[in-house]
Amino acid sequence: MGWFDRLKEGLRGTRANLGSELTAGRTLDWDEVEFSLVAADVGAAAAAAIVAEAKEAHERGDTPQAAVRQALVDRLEPNRMRQSLRRVGFELGGTQKPVEPSGHVIMMVGVNGVGKTTSIAKLGQYYQALGRSVSFAAGDTFRAAGSEQLGVWGERLNIPTQTGAQGSDPGAVAFEAAQARAAEARDLLIVDTAGRLHTQHNLMQELVKIKRVIGKADEGEPKDIWLVLDAVTGQNGLNQAKRFHDAVGLTGVIVTKLDGTAKGGILVPIVQELGVPIKFVGVGESADDLQPFDPVAYATALVGLDPQAA
Ligand SMILES: Nc1nc2c(ncn2[C@@H]2O[C@H](COP(=O)(O)OP(=O)(O)O)[C@@H](O)[C@H]2O)c(=O)[nH]1
Ligand SMILES: [Mg+2]
């Protein structure tokens, strides 16, 4: 399967409603389209705005699918000027641009079970494949075997991994790993963290501390803090994202498990309300199922358009 087909397959649940509302041959009902967008977690205000824009574009001659796709893409690329896909000569199916980290250390945060540790392993493989030297810090020392889980991945991938015993200070694990990364001039260190402590306040404080000690070991780092979010958790995930963003300042989000939900629209409010870009999306459990986020590909798959269709 090519990467677009994987993405499309992963988004099947979400497309089932939205895509069928827009498919030619059906009587087009914009209220139903809006309802499908809300049901997919796009958010009520964004859904209304998307439909209003799409309706206009449809009246000007765009197909319903192309019109909704354009309105979605406009909301997923906060750093770009509004652009018409048709005007820029939309093309899909070429090589995906690599997602470049801003610096040398990426700190990963997120609640338990969202897919942090497996995403770190997948990212390790991704950056290795790009020829980068990678190391890991297994900072989830709270859960039994939390640290070991990443250690096992590190061994399998031949990626040096700083681990810590259960209950040990995750700041110390991160500090040592950050020092080693700088001393060995490795390209990238990815730091895992706990997803739950005794209270949420404790967790946020610990993350702030880990961030600070990384900066002591390696000035200016971590330049990236990426939140891993499970699409299945829907609007609740958006609240999670806000809390993490307030505590440590997110530079990116990875949305996992888009393959297991009909609510794959959560990416829109993340970008719209948090203003934080989506870096990767997870559409399955195997390594190839973590993909750089491409708003056009995502919106194309969601509305059920063929990649070649304008
Ligand atoms: N279906 C699906 N499962 C995923 C995806 N990403 C992670 N998982 C699974 O989610 C579970 C929890 O992952 P883990 O990395 O341990 O979560 P953590 O607690 O955040 O570190 C594991 O069974 C993963 O295989 C995804 O994109 N799709
Ligand atoms: Mg974990």
Notes on the protein architecture:
The protein is α/β, with parallel strands linked by helices. The protein has two domains: 3-95, Four Helix Bundle (Hemerythrin (Met), subunit A); 105-294, Rossmann fold. Helices cover 47% and strands 13% of the residues. The chain is built from twelve helices and eight strands. It has helices spanning 3-10, 12-22, 30-39, 44-59, 64-76, 116-129, 146-157, 170-183, 200-217, 235-248, 267-274, 295-303, and strands at 105-109, 134-139, 161-162, 188-193, 224-230, 252-256, 278-282, 290-292. An eight-stranded mixed sheet has the order 3-2-4-1-5-6-7-8, sandwiched between helices. Helix 10 links the parallel strand 5 (224-230) and strand 6 (252-256). The longest helix has 18 residues, at 200-217. The model has no long low-confidence stretch (mean pLDDT 91). The structure holds guanosine-5'-diphosphate and magnesium ion. Magnesium ion binds next to helix 6 and helix 7.
Biggest sheet, spatial arrangement of strands: 3-2-4-1-5-6-7-8
The strand count comes to 8
- Radius of gyration, rounded? 20 Å
Count of the separate structural domains: 2
Percentage of residues assigned to helices: 40-55%
Q: What small molecules accompany the polymer chains?
A: guanosine-5'-diphosphate, magnesium ion
Structural class from helices and strands?
Answer: alpha/beta
Biggest beta sheet summary: 8 strands, mixed
Poorly predicted tracts of residues: none
Task: State the CATH class of the largest domain.
Answer: Alpha Beta
CATH topology of the largest domain: Rossmann fold
Please write the string of helix (H) and strand (E) elements.
Answer: HHHHHEHEHEHEHEHEHEEH
- What is the terminal-to-terminal distance? 22 Å
The average pLDDT is 91
Number of helices: 12
Q: What is the CATH homologous superfamily assignment of the largest domain?
A: P-loop containing nucleotide triphosphate hydrolases
The global form is elongated
Instruction: Report strand %.
Output: 5-15%
CATH architecture of the largest domain: 3-Layer(aba) Sandwich
